[in-house]
Amino acid sequence: MFSTTTPAKMQITDYYHFTDQEMRIILLGEYDCDMPAPMDLRIAIFKINRLRFAAATSTKPTPAAAAAALAPLVHRLLDDINAADVDHWCMNNAVYGLEHSLSLARIFRLAVRLFALLTLPRSATTRWARAAAAAAAAAAPDDDGDDENEDPYRSVCAAQRTELLARMRALFPQLEYQPNLRWPMVVAGVAAAAAADDGAAAAADRAFVSESLRIIWEQPVVACGPMRCREMLQRFWASGKTEWEECFVEPVPC
Description:
Elements: H1 20-27, H2 39-56, H3 63-83, H4 86-92, H5 98-119, H6 122-139, H7 152-171, H8 182-192, H9 200-217, H10 225-239, H11 244-247
């Protein structure tokens, strides 16, 4: 999780050579209350960070060439996030009761998908978003849909952000251990920077994230990470910038 809020080029990479199976063995039987995500989604975060590093350190002649080389991996990863069987995992890991565990898992799927969209090469994520939008339109042919000229990337990110925040607003007051949502709150906070044009709604989203991170930080067993992320988000929002790497310009524990 620490690498997610670390600049892409500054990540700790010693574990990047691990295979999926080795990662599963490492995570098997572990339940992290600060990251109560299904195993498939935790492995997806590991892969996203690895792709972030690969894109940032690529030896290709241009960023566009680097993005093109990584595009198949980006698309496969986003498809894997969609396909993750979070319900089955929750049936065997219902630490907080099945209902809350399912709610947490679905929130983490949204957050992990949004993290990928916000951090991976834009050309690759835009192509994936365009394909996802086309598939959704084909599945609902009677739906008038959005403006055909709308940017599919922005549209998909906005939909993910809106659903993520709605689910967290509903669940956060019910949680016995509110740090469960520390990482999804940070993801939503970065995504909220791109919603500045929404006016009052965007301000309300940022206020919710800021206050939630303050509440999380005040829990007895929580270190400084959530408050440091809150400080960086507030600085980021004030700057008018919108990119993940523009928020986390130095390593910050989440």
